[in-house]
Specification:
Helix content: 25-40%
Number of strands: 15
Structural class: alpha/beta
CATH topology of the largest domain: Rossmann fold
Largest sheet: 6 strands, mixed
Shape: globular
CATH superfamily of the largest domain: von Willebrand factor, type A domain
Strand order of the largest sheet: 7-6-5-8-9-10
Number of helices: 9
Number of domains: 2
Strand content: 15-25%
């Protein structure tokens, strides 16, 4: 019996270790500040094999220069400063159908910061894997079980997932009264499918869209590469702690593009035509559309307001094409002040010979109406005191 009592805890311990080990290659980029890092124990004079035990009173090796204070180093020692600011602007040029326009040379782009032209330091194009956080409104107000809003939300969510490539990372976040991460960033589509299966019975009728967006954007701001938030929502917020203005500022500071897909457009038009939608509800939905459009424009994303589910495939292709195929513009601002102020950015396409707006024609020589998708500003860092 004694041996049995010893073996059982050992067996449980082995199972516990195997259970917490993650599967290789499945977990995406997670920035978790709560991760515990094991650090080596400092040597003490009580350790018999420690060098400190042999020479406990060994003198410290004096530094040649002492502390690196200004004016304390010899003139022949090189010093380096990292005061230069660098701004990277992911830019997409799309036609009026949302299709990416490729092969535009570097000298046709012009960047203005607060109205001042900037010297471009780097320019590149290409495709890259994406890191997407799909933020989905799933409340009992619009997504009741088997309702039109329920079907529309699931069709939009599942439809976008089908267009992702195997190397794309995806996280699923749902919100109503609170925000819930159904699955964190992963390339494991089985994990994504299991998360989507949880979108069946909504809980509360409230929605905290502002809080869900800001929380997701702040978690993603340190992720490298092509990243974006896809918001599938009615645009209404009823329960967030953050205000609309604070949400705008937080999204701009995070620097993560937000793409928005509005729900219930056709249902709203039918209700409005029948006179069953009151003035208050009409104004609430108009304000919701404006908020989603603003979030997209100010972060370098795009906003879509499809009325029919048949429009979804074109919307998804426009989002993925725009994200994968972008022009990456990098410049060092002429204003290097670290004042914490908001700097406004404007990307233009100009004819370098005439300095006039660039005219793009199709294969038949007809002019193409195009749109430049890029973030419209950033917040300068503050001087470290």
């Amino acid at each position: 019996m004694k041996a049995l009592r010893i073996l059982i805890p050992t067996f449980i311990l082995v199972l516990g270790i195997a259970w917490v080990l993650p599967m290789p290659g499945q977990q995406g980029p997670i920035n978790d500040s709560s991760t515990t890092v094991a650090r080596p124990r400092k040597s003490t004079s009580t350790d018999a094999d420690s060098p400190a035990a042999d020479a406990p009173d060994a003198p410290k090796i004096p530094s040649k220069f002492g502390k690196a204070k200004e004016g304390n180093l010899p003139s022949d020692v090189p010093t380096f400063r990292t005061d230069a600011l660098t701004v990277t602007v992911d830019t997409a040029v799309v036609d009026n159908k949302g299709h990416f326009i490729p092969n535009i040379p570097k000298n046709y782009f012009r960047i203005l910061e607060d109205g001042v032209p900037q010297q471009m330091a780097a320019f590149s194009t290409g495709e890259a894997p994406m890191t997407i956080a799909m933020v989905i409104e799933f409340s009992a107000k619009f997504q009741q079980y088997y309702s039109a809003g329920w079907f529309q939300t699931l069709n939009a969510s599942y439809g976008f997932v089908r267009l992702l490539k195997p190397e794309d990372y995806l996280a699923i976040i749902a919100y109503d009264l609170r925000t819930e991460i159904l699955s964190d960033f992963t390339i494991d589509r089985q994990q994504t499918a299991e998360a989507m299966q949880r979108l069946r019975i909504p809980g509360f009728s409230e929605s905290n869209m502002y809080d869900a967006l800001v929380d997701t954007a702040q978690r993603m701001q340190d992720i490298e590469g092509r990243k974006a938030i896809l918001l599938i929502s009615s645009g209404l917020d009823t329960f967030s702690k953050l205000t609309y203005d604070k949400t705008r500022r937080a999204l701009q500071d995070a620097g993560v593009p937000v793409y928005t897909i509005s729900l219930l457009q056709a249902q709203r038009e039918v209700a409005d035509a029948r006179g069953s939608m009151g003035n208050v509800a009409r104004m609430d939905f108009l304000q919701a559309d404006n908020q989603m459009r603003t979030f997209a424009n100010e972060t370098g994303g795009m906003s879509f307001f499809p009325r029919f589910e048949g429009e979804y495939p074109a919307v998804f292709r426009s989002i993925t094409d725009t994200m994968r195929s972008e022009y990456v513009l990098t410049y060092n601002p002429s204003n290097q002040a670290r004042d914490g102020k908001v700097r406004r950015i404007k990307v233009q396409l100009i004819n370098p010979e005439t300095n006039e707006p660039l005219r793009i024609n199709d294969d038949k020589g007809k002019p193409i109406k195009y749109q430049i998708v890029a973030k419209n500003g950033y917040t300068a860092p503050r001087e470290i005191e």
